[in-house]
Amino acid sequence: MNWTDERVEKLKKLWSEGLSASQIAAQLGGVSRNAVIGKVHRLSLPGRAKAGGTATAARAQKRNTSAPRAPNYASRVATRTVTRQQGATMLKEEVEIDTVNEIEYRPTANVVVPISRRLGLTELTERTCKWPVGDPLKDDFHFCGNDSPDASPYCGYHQRLAYQPVHERRRPAAQPRG
Predict the structure, then answer these.
(1) With b meaning 16 or more CB within 10 Å and e meaning fewer, what string describes 136-166?
(2) 40 near 14, Cβ under 8 Å?
(3) Report field, pTM of the whole predicted structure over 0.85
(4) Residues 10/23, Cβ–Cβ less than 8 Å
(5) Are 65 and 32 in contact (CB under 8 A)?
(6) pLDDT in tens, the chain (178 residues)
(7) Which are the contacts of 116, defined by CB distance < 8 A and separation ≥ 6?
């Protein structure tokens, strides 16, 4: 199917009247909805007019914005405009979004971090802690190397970091947000 001048003019007319790409394809015959959409983009036609209205009225309504909010509006709530399609028209809707609450970090009291023996990979045994320290791509990378009890891969300190009981992992999520 070729786009003749008559078919292009009919496409422009139907598009300005607010018909959908599917409706235009049906009226033109022999073209798909996607062919109509592609031709509209290549012709750089403006957005479809709303059915029953004029293109200028649609543009004037688009410029209309909501009233500005008071400056003391809660800073933790952001507002964003979302465009949703409904039928042959596009609606704009304001949606309030809660921002992420900061989690307060409280270090555990009386924590003693053991001094690392700074062992390399070839110096590790089955009785040494294999907790990696640092960036493996850097020269100062090493393993903890302290004694590990009961053939565990980690020393007592790193065991507590690696193997947290389920109830301790879920506790921060269960606390009410204030």
Answers:
(1) eeeeeebbbbbebeeebebbebbbeeeeeee
(2) no
(3) no
(4) no
(5) no
(6) 688 898 999 989 998 888 899 999 898 888 899 999 999 999 988 877 665 545 555 455 555 555 555 555 555 556 666 555 655 555 556 666 667 777 776 666 666 677 778 888 898 888 899 999 989 898 889 999 888 888 789 888 888 888 877 776 666 555 555 5
(7) 133, 142, 143, 144, 145, 146
